[in-house]
Amino acid sequence: MLELQSAAKECRKRSPLAYLERARAVPIDINHGIHDGHGKNSVPISQSLRAFNALALPQDRFTEEEIEYFTRQARVPPHLQSQAPFSSNGGLKILFRRQSANARITPSFDGGHEKNTEAAFRWLNQQMRN
Q1: What is the C-alpha to C-alpha distance for residues 118 and 111, in angstroms, rounded to an integer?
Q2: pTM attached to this predicted model
């Protein structure tokens, strides 16, 4: 039992979620493909949604039901679909995006576990130093 408690403590210590609150003053853009987490060696979308929740204002956070839907269905929950901008992000269709304080999340571009360097640099170029 002590071994399990020690392992759980170590997991929490290694998790980025343990440190994200310290980054609230920094602009952060989280992107996650809607199909990621449904294959070998991929990351569940729930990880990105929970990271956003750690940075977001309380009224902008995703509910556990919404996180579960995104994760299991690999789709935007029906009640959030009307909030989708349906635009493109470096060639990938954006299905949903949310902004809260300094955090922005695109948890459902139409893709999987891939990077979009063009979109990342475009976002970085828009950031200003205080």
Answers
A1: 15
A2: 0.80
As a whole number of angstroms, the distance between CA 32 and CA 94 comes to 10
Identify the three-state secondary structure at position 92: strand
Residue range 77-120, pLDDT digits in tens: 999 987 655 565 666 778 888 999 999 998 766 666 667 777 77
Strand partners, 31: 106
**CA–CA separation, 29 and 62 (whole Å):** 16
CA-to-CA distance for 99 and 121, rounded, in angstroms?
A: 18
Q: Which residues contact 44 (CB under 8 A, 6 or more apart)?
A: 36, 37, 71
Angle, vertex CA 47, rays to CA 5 and CA 81, nearest 5: 145
Tens of pLDDT, residue by residue over 15-54, are: 777 888 888 888 999 988 888 877 666 788 999 999 999 9
**In this structure, are residues 97 and 22 in contact, taking their beta carbons and an 8 Å threshold?**
no
CB atoms within 10 A of CB 16: 11
For residue 79 the two structure tokens come to 């009640």
Domain ranges of the chain: 2-126
